Amino acid sequence: MQTLRRTFFALCLLGPLALLPSTTQAAPPLSTSILVVSTHNPSTFGQTVVFSVLVAPPAGSLLIPSGSCQLMDGATSLGLNVLTSAGTCVFSSNSLAVGPHTITLVYSGDATFAANTGSLNTNPQVVNGPAGTPAPSSGALLLLGILLTALATLVLRRRPGVETR
């Protein structure tokens, strides 16, 4: 009898909507912004470069993203790390090869925040050769340098009064 009274009251108050089954929908995941910065850019071959990461919630959100992040150098993983309670993580590497590197961060997402990808704020990360020697950006530049050195040596040898060894 009590159930019948509640149903009648609900029908009077809400009309036919009271008979619809209740459904709950999960809220869509929130977006994030990703900031990746490095300590040295350009760096020198063998130098440790520290990459600091912030996965930030949308403006106005009091929630902090959690989950894991993977730092990538092109298609190569530089490491996997878990976000701190502040939404940050740190990676370091001293094994970047000489040349330019496209550094990206892949955030896995969590129950509240959607997965996302971000890039180093100063891409590409550039690694110079030992003793600050600039890295060649392509094989053509390296070949050009060798040819110019050979040409300069020949020109100096043909100048009268200049001795080269």
Mean pLDDT figure: 78
Rounded to the nearest angstrom, the distance between the terminal CA atoms is: 113 Å
Largest sheet: 4 strands, antiparallel
**Order of helices and strands, N to C?**
HEEEEEEEEEEH
What is the molecular shape?
Answer: elongated
* CA gyration radius, whole angstroms: 30 Å
Low-confidence region ranges: 135-145, 147-159
Number of strands: 10
User: Which structural class is indicated by helix and strand composition?
Assistant: alpha+beta
Separate helix tally: 2
User: Within the largest sheet, what's the order of strands?
Assistant: 5-4-8-9
Strand content: 25-35%
Helix content: 10-25%
Task: Please give the structural blueprint.
Elements: H1 2-14, E1 33-38, E2 43-44, E3 49-56, E4 68-73, E5 76-82, E6 88-93, E7 99-101, E8 103-107, E9 116-119, E10 125-128, H2 139-158
Parallel strand pairs: 2-10
Antiparallel strand pairs: 1-3, 3-6, 4-5, 4-8, 7-10, 8-9
List key phrases describing it:
alpha+beta, four-stranded antiparallel β-sheet, three-stranded antiparallel β-sheet, 2 helices
Protein described:
The chain is α+β, with helices and mostly antiparallel strands and 165 residues long. It is 20% helix and 31% strand. The chain is built from two helices and ten strands, in the order H-E-E-E-E-E-E-E-E-E-E-H. It has helices spanning 2-14, 139-158; strands spanning 33-38, 43-44, 49-56, 68-73, 76-82, 88-93, 99-101, 103-107, 116-119, 125-128. The strands form three sheets. A four-stranded antiparallel sheet has the order 5-4-8-9, with no helix packed on it. Strand 8 (103-107) and strand 9 form a beta hairpin. It is elongated, with a radius of gyration of 30 Å. Mean pLDDT is 78; it is low at 135-145 and 147-159.
